[in-house]
């Protein structure tokens, strides 16, 4: 035994599990009166937020919720969603499962059953789809309704009827604000469950651990340049990779959460002007929403706002327009399996002297790893050796480190495959530049990223095949100025039957969430290999051509 090990064992005094719960507890002790949450006309201090999280944990524990149990939530970016990120794991080690609010009933039912949901908290905005999902699901969770008193009178649709046996406000009030909660026994304990589309219709459940969530929160502070008391606007859905872990990030610097139910230009500009928003995240659609807003919806604000965006790199014209509007855009890259973005296009000041074209080329790269990610590489998936860092040789982008998921829930085969060779295989294809910056070139999984959300092309194709007139189909991404990408369906009909684009789209809407339905339908013979396999790369080029020609 080394002298540096003899008598120097771990003990409670020198080793405690990392958890983001500690960040909120610290903020509440040091800044109890600082505003933690703004929701419409409501304001909650850090002391109140911490008490509400403990109340939720206490109420859940009183219902028998504990280690290994799943608490599912169908919530917008509202205070209960923030409560859930702390209160659920504090309930004797339960795990938070945030449902995508854009999903259809069948997809929701699958997740509830797969996650074995014990408790379900539902915003009444989603009562109808959740009622349908519960009717389909095998599990019978305790259902709690959230009736938002700040729900606007001019909402696009009224709140649905309650579908649960308890009201969230009453449930919260039943909890003990002095409940000590349960911290993780081990930082490897699960904290949350997120579902990713993958390459099949049924998604995989990605499990996060406390250590990764804590490290991601700290890394977000660094890479998003969050100083003391930042003001964070919730344009990014908290159901998406746990909001890139920003629910756990904001308390690190005792910041303020500004809730936002819907991404609307006027509301965003009002928040920036009225609350001094300093940071927000989102897909390119959010940038389009801001830049294309009518003049009467825009407001001036004195501060520079940092805008973190993922998906495709924003065009130079968009970056300049955002800069002119008062935003500083940071381009990120990651996956659900990596707690959201863990690669950042970190700008090298030496590039300031380059020509506009050379600067644009560097801004198109995905970037370099976050500080706490051990490594990101571009490897040959067969040999598991790095490809030459020449900016030309294509390999698979892979990750490893403390901000990679535990694995896929109840799917050891998929977990083992994803971690083959000691790396997480992203399925994305890219190149490594000589300076260590990664740049994506294609997606091997044929996933369509629309508005920041993954859409499985196979799932859409399966729905198309349910139409009696469809003989053969293939779905690929078509570029969209608003959404980044949307599905485009190429179809061969049976015996040359005549069918309209509108009829196909209407058919898809009966079985899929609207955002998964094709935005374009093209009827033509599909290109195939000699073995009959559809050549999707040809169709992607065809879809891009349609956009260029304006067809």
What does this structure look like?
The chain has 551 residues and is of the alpha/beta class. Among the domains are: 21-220, Rossmann fold (3-Layer(aba) Sandwich), CATH 3.40.50; 447-549, ANL, C-terminal domain (GMP Synthetase, Chain A, domain 3, 2-Layer Sandwich). 29% of the residues lie in helices and 25% in strands. The protein has a nine-stranded mixed beta sheet with strand order 2-1-11-10-12-13-14-15-16. An eight-stranded mixed beta sheet has the order 7-6-5-3-4-8-9-19. A four-stranded antiparallel beta sheet has the order 17-18-20-21, with no helix packed on it. α1 packs across α2, α2 (46-62) crosses α3 and α4 (105-115) crosses α5. The protein is globular and about 70 Å long.
